[in-house]
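Entry 14. Ran structure prediction on the chain below.
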Amino acid sequence: MATKPEATPVAKSEDRIEDFPYYEEGKVPQYHRYHAEVSYLDELELIWGKRWGAQGIGPLREVAMVQPTETEVKALYEQDSAFFVFNGVTPDLDLMRAQHRALADLYESLGIHVHYTSWADETPRSAYGPMKRSISAAAGFVINGGAIIPRESTPYWRGRSRYVAEFLSRIGCPILYTVHGHGVCEIGASVRMSDDFIVLMLSTDCNREGAEQVIPILERAGYERVLLARSPGPLYDYHDEVPGWMHADMWILPLDARLALIYPPWCDYQTIRDLHEIGYELIEVPRDEIDFYPTNAITLEPRKVIMNASAVKTRLLLERHGVEVVGIDYDEVHKYGGGIRCNTMQLIRDPGPTTFG
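Output, C-alpha cells:
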C-alpha cells in the first residue's frame, strides 16, 4: 500500500501502481483516505512544478517585475492629475527605466530569480483607455498554493487583473481565486506580516465585499489572523496623502515576527492598538521621510530589507534595531505612483517566522 505523496517530486525509473496514494490491490481508489489525508499543498509541486507561495517574510527566492512603458508618462494624465491620483509631476521615462532595471539587477545579485517581463509584449490597456501604473507587479498576490487575482479600484487600472492572470498562467503558477461581482480588492497591497499573519485594509482600493471574498482564501492558505485595518480617503479634492491612504503597504513594513516599521498618520489607531496587543514593537518613520516611501520596501528575509536609499534617517533607525538595509536609488520611479514593493510580485519564499505559532 502506498503512502502520502512525496513533498518533492521523485524521478521514477518506471511506472508502478504502488506509487499511487493508498493503493490496495483489487479495490477502487480509497477516496475517503486520499481526500482526508492529502491536501492541495501536498501535491502542489508534483502538479505545478514549484512550491508556489510567498506567504510571509521567509527568505525571498523568486519575484516578477513588469517593464515600464510609455503608458506611464502620457500627457493625458496631466490634463487632470487629481483624477489620475498623482501630483502632476511626470517621471523621466529613461531614468525610471534605469532605476527599475537596477532593482531587478539587485535582486539577481542577491540570488533572487527575477522574471523580468512585459504584459504580453503589448501596450497595456485598461477597460477604458491607457492603463496608468501598469508596472505595479505586486497586483499579482501569491500565497501558499497560488495567486489571488485582484479587482481594481479605478477605471484606468481595471483590467490589469487580466494581464496578471495571463502572466501567472504562463509561468505555471496556479490561480486560487479572482475577486468578482461588485467586490473591489487590490489584494496585492495587503501586507504579509509573517507566515500566519496578514494585514488587509478597507480603503478606496478595497471595499467590504472584496475583503469578504478574499478573507476565506487567506485563512485557508494558513493565516491564523487577518487584521482588517481601515483607511481615511478623499472625496473630491486631491491631497498629497492620497497614495498613502490607498494601500497598507504604504504605511507598514514587516521586519520580523513581531517587529514592524510604521507610519501612524496613514493608518487607523485601532490597528496600532491591535498590533500592540499582538506584541509588535513598532518603529515610526520620520515624518520628513515619508515621501521617500520607506515602508514601501521589500523584506528579503527577517531583519533584512531593500529600501529607497534616500530614506537615510529611517535606515539609521532600522540599523539600530538590528535590521540590515540594502539601499537603492528609486525616487524617479516613485513619481509614477508606486515604490519598490509595488513593483515586485513576490512568487516564492522559504518558510519564515510565525507570529502566533
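The chain has two domains: 1-38, 50-349. Will compare against last week's run tomorrow.
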